[in-house]
Design brief:
By secondary structure, this protein is an alpha/beta fold. The protein has three domains: 142 residues, Rossmann fold; 179 residues, Argininosuccinate synthetase, chain A, domain 2, CATH 3.90.1260.10; 35 residues, no CATH class. The chain contains twelve helices and 14 strands. The strands form three sheets. Strands 3-2-1-4-5 form a five-stranded parallel sheet, with helices on both faces. It has a five-stranded antiparallel sheet with strand order 10-9-8-13-14. The model has no long low-confidence stretch (mean pLDDT 95).
Amino acid sequence: MSGTVKKVVLAYSGGLDTSVILRWLQETYRCEVVTFTADIGQGEELEPARRKAERMGIKEIFIDDLREEFVRDFVFPMFRANALYEGQYLLGTSIARPLIAKRQIEIAEAVGADAVAHGATGKGNDQVRFELSYYALKPDIKVIAPWREWDLTSRTKLIEYAEKHQIEIPRDKRGEAPFSTDANLLHISAEGKVLEDPWIEPEEFVYSRTVAPEAAPDKPDYVEIGFERGDAVSVDGKTLSPAGLLTRLNELGGRHGIGRLDLVENRFVGMKSRGVYETPGGTMLHAAHRGIESLTLDRGAAHLKDELMPRYAELVYNGFWFAPERLMLQALIDQSQENVEGTVRLKLYKGLARVVGRKSPKSLYSLAHVTFEEDQVYDQRDAEGFIKLNALRLRLAKALRKS
């Protein structure tokens, strides 16, 4: 392997795993390493990652605030599709990977690197998401996945390697963590260790973004979310940036215990895994978006979107964000959002976000047609022919069976 790579861009968090990877890359490939740390709203201080990279001899260090781009160009397009993987998961981890990969490739091209590296393990989905994105954006890039190459197969071996090479180890990393987490502005996930038995309910210490619904306020809160062309643009009448809006919804939802999910899902690599997710703002946004679409989307368009949604969600989950079929679906979805405009009122209470009001200047809801009172626009006698035509095949089938 030595000498095959001149310069590599590493997705670097500053934690134990990626710090070991950094030194391993230097030793194994004898190459120059460039670190890239993305702020996508994980809520951690990123300057320590810069200082740690500097102490490990790194000359080119990139720390980029990608929060606005993350929500505007990745989260919002996905939410226009109402995407749920396997009917429940709001894809918080999945949607962050293509953005990180995109920026890695941009940096690689800017600094003349011939390789990129990530810290995803060989058992998970993230290796697939990163690498499919890399190859879609730069087909000739070399990808280094240390977890698939090295023999550091345990936490003990990682710590031994770190000590041998004088890599700083945070005090809380010397013990075995009770579970692993991944966080960004859309969600935080927890999996592994104490969560591996799907029969055992997660302890309250697993959750960090939401209060327990039982401990949430006894009085509900109401929030109004404004939409334009399918994207949320305001909260309670105040216009906010994409990242600012999601941050505000996270605060409101977290206070009421909204957005917890305990899920056994099917990984793309073939196994089932148990994940515990908190997506407070995303859960509210999903409910509100469906609420405004109920007023503004034509029935045929709405039903077609619902048919395509599982396919779209699967593409995102499996790492095909930059694939032509995802882009095709996105164009169709975005076309459907032209008149998705208006305001939705949500009631937040004890873990639930319920739509209790919706209004739109482009509403297709016609009180004149649905009223139970006398009206001048709908002749109820027309329904007889409509029903008989729809019943014709049923009557013919029954007559055939009788004969």
